[in-house]
Amino acid sequence: MKRFLSMVVLAALTLFVAGAMAAEMKGMKAAAKPTTLKGEIVDTGCYLGHGKSGADHKSCASRCIANGMPMGLLTADGKLYLLTPNHDNADPYTQLKDLAARVVEVTGVVYERGGMRSIDVTDLKAGDAK
What we know:
Blueprint: H1 2-31, E1 35-43, H2 44-50, H3 58-66, E2 71-75, E3 80-85, H4 91-96, E4 102-113, E5 116-129
Parallel strand pairs: 3-5
Antiparallel strand pairs: 1-2, 1-4, 2-3, 4-5
């Protein structure tokens, strides 16, 4: 009887762990779905440090980005996403470097960790100058 009970408990634990792993994998797959976001390309240094964005700040943002300042996508609802290059194709990310202060649509996988949002850029559609 003890042996039977031990086998039932072991089987139940195995099913529980397998179910938890399957749920975690399903959540990971759902999180990897590409999203399209619309917003303004900003340099994160001037935006975070001084609240600078928009057409009046375009030349400064362009210089900051050209000098290596990380870029962000500032959405209409005030959320800021760090833009990161996709490892398989960095071309769309690279094209964004010339679009400071422009409103664009960026497609990629969105991540959030430690309160920071990012989007792994896989495609873009340039909009009008702001």
